[in-house]
Automatic annotation (TrEMBL):
Pfam family, one: Imm7
Designated name of the protein: Immunity 7 family protein
Domain of life: Bacteria
Protein source organism: Amycolatopsis samaneae
């Protein structure tokens, strides 16, 4: 099973003082990227208190196909809006190197890097009583 949950606060710059028209255009580009990727079960792109945010989540029986496309989409959002920040948590029980742990992709200033998860890993015994490798 492949599980993923993520969020991004979309910003044009790290100053957080973005031109409203520019931000509108960036949000439209992010919307198109999400639509074109067609990989996300749950997707919510909306404005809250004048700021755009993106939420992603879902499950897939075979992460090998969705995983790379999901990460590509997450990275693309950072490329489109270089001031953006957020987290994408992924657990792929078919990943032979990380099958008992969540991985976290951190976006800061639009750049994405991978980190181990200290909160829900190892999956067994932290989240599940038993887990067969």
């Amino acid at each position: 099973m492949f599980e993923y949950h993520g969020w991004v606060t979309i910003q044009a710059t790290a100053s957080g003082d973005d031109d409203a028209a520019l931000l509108e255009r960036l949000v439209e580009r992010v919307h198109r990227a999400v639509h074109d990727a067609d990989v996300v079960d749950l997707v919510d792109l909306r404005w809250s208190a004048g700021l755009p945010m993106l939420h992603l989540g879902g499950f897939d029986k075979h992460g090998g196909t969705i995983g790379p496309r999901l990460l590509e989409l997450f990275t693309r959002v950072g490329e489109l809006a270089a001031g953006s920040y957020g987290l994408l948590h992924v657990w792929d029980d078919q990943d032979t190197e990380h099958d008992n742990e969540f991985r976290v992709y951190r976006m800061a200033r639009g750049l994405v890097n991978e980190r181990p998860d200290p909160h829900l890993s190892p999956v067994a015994p932290t989240v599940l009583d038993l887990y067969e490798l």
